[in-house]
Amino acid sequence: MMSSEWYTASAPGKFVILGEHAVVYGKPAIVLAVDRRITCSIRRSPRNTLNGEYIDFNRQPHFRYLTRDVHYAMDYVTSSEIPPGSGMGSSAALSAALAMAIREERGEPVDERSLVDEAYGAELFAQGNGSPMDASACVHGKGIGVNIPGAGDRELWTITKGDRTWRVSDLDVPDMTFVIGNTGIRAATGPLVDKVRRYMQSNHFACDVVEEIAAVTLMGYNAIRRNDVEELGSLMTRDHKLLSILGVSCRELNKLVNASLPYSYGAKLTGSGGGGCMVALTDEPQKVVDAIEARGGTAYVVKTGSDGVRMEPTPASGPLMDIPMDYPPRQ
Ligand code: PMV
Q1: Are 99 and 67 in contact (CB under 8 A)?
Q2: Which of 12, 41, 88, 198 has the most crowded Cβ, counting Cβ within 10 A?
Q3: CA 70 to centroid of ligand 1, rounded, Å
Q4: How many Å lie between the centroid of ligand 1 and the Cα of residue 87?
Q5: CA gyration radius for the chain?
Q6: C-alpha 130 to ligand 1 mean position (Å)
Q7: Order of strands, edge to edge, in the sheet holding 177-182?
Q8: Which atom of ligand 1 is found nearest the CA of 273?
Q9: What backbone torsions phi and psi does residue 142 show, to the nearest 5 degrees?
Q10: Closest atom of ligand 1 relative to the 192 alpha carbon
């Protein structure tokens, strides 16, 4: 008899303190999970549905990849608190939650490493490029460092692809206040990662900028260990300038970063850029929220230290925000 029991998992979004884009080339990065999650429920069903409608797996590459060994129909229900295409890891969080729910439903072993492999696999299948940073942050939660020298005793896993290696380690979540500001502009990660790659291939100067981002990230890691908010803030602002030189900022992001700076130690875009979110480090969070909202952004004060992917006792209630789904049909 077919079981129609629900299996529900959730995973957090994330923001990057320092190191996005450079991490694609095996450089260091520092990432924190946030208190906004995607929840995904599944149950066996006579037909495949997503939030009550027929699911076209060709337009849902994360679902298509993660269900490749599932040979029966399912109902999938998602509810997301993470704005899609915003640099907060919505697709990695979706992938991590769906991967965990599927493994539980199938009675397969569930451990962080295998969930990272699944979630990163789904990201690569959907967008064709990128690092395992987002997948690692959404699976592990709390804080992670990527390719941080000397963090070996906290190492979680190592992932290799071609000539690149990412050593992911657990990171103490700093006791600092961050505000995220969303421009409301959706931007897909894949094309921005491609843009940086083309720039680096055509111009050695872009490779130097990536090296400088790596150096800034390592200095930022040391500033976090010293709890030095002033130094970390100024490194974040410097990183924003370097990312702008790489061509991944935009007018709206610059506007929100500039609006935050008078009340912040520093501010930068977070994630792939081109729109999406920025983050400010501050001890005047309400002033930063007000400054961002006065410029047309949506702001919230981040609570850090969130759990990674986990099972949930109650099924998802249905969409609060879209999940990443605007993909052209795959052949
Ligand atoms: O915008 P997001 O949440 O997909 O973050 C992308 C981070 C990049 O470093 C730009 C790409 C990657 O895969 O690491």
Answers
A1: no
A2: 12
A3: 28
A4: 7
A5: 19
A6: 7
A7: 266-270, 277-282, 177-182, 298-301
A8: 1
A9: 50, -115
A10: 10
The residue to mutate among 159, 183, 189, 246, having the most atoms of ligand 1 within 8 angstroms of its beta carbon, is 189
Q: How many residues does the chain have?
A: 331
Q: Enumerate the β-bridge partners of residue 39.
A: 10, 79
User: How many CB atoms sit inside 10 A of residue 23's CB?
Assistant: 27
pLDDT values of the chain reduced to their tens digit, one per residue, 331 residues:
456 899 999 999 999 999 999 999 999 999 999 999 999 999 999 999 999 999 999 999 999 999 999 999 999 999 999 999 899 999 999 999 999 999 999 999 999 999 999 999 999 999 999 999 999 999 999 999 999 998 877 999 999 999 999 999 999 999 999 999 999 999 999 999 999 999 999 999 999 999 999 999 999 999 999 999 999 999 999 999 999 999 999 999 999 999 999 999 999 999 999 999 999 999 999 999 999 999 999 999 999 999 999 999 999 988 877 777 556 555 5
- How big, in percent rounded to 5, are the helix, strand and coil portions of the chain? 40, 25, 35
Q: How far is the CA of 72 from the centre of ligand 1 (A)?
A: 32
* Ligand 1 lining (C-beta closer than 6 Å): 20-21, 23-24, 87-89, 130-131, 133-134, 189, 193, 271-272
Whole-model pTM over 0.85: yes
In whole angstroms, give the CA distance from residue 247 to residue 238.
Answer: 14
**Angle at which helices 229-245 and 204-225 pack, to 10 degrees?**
160
Q: Which contiguous run of DSSP H or E holds residue 43? A: strand 29-44
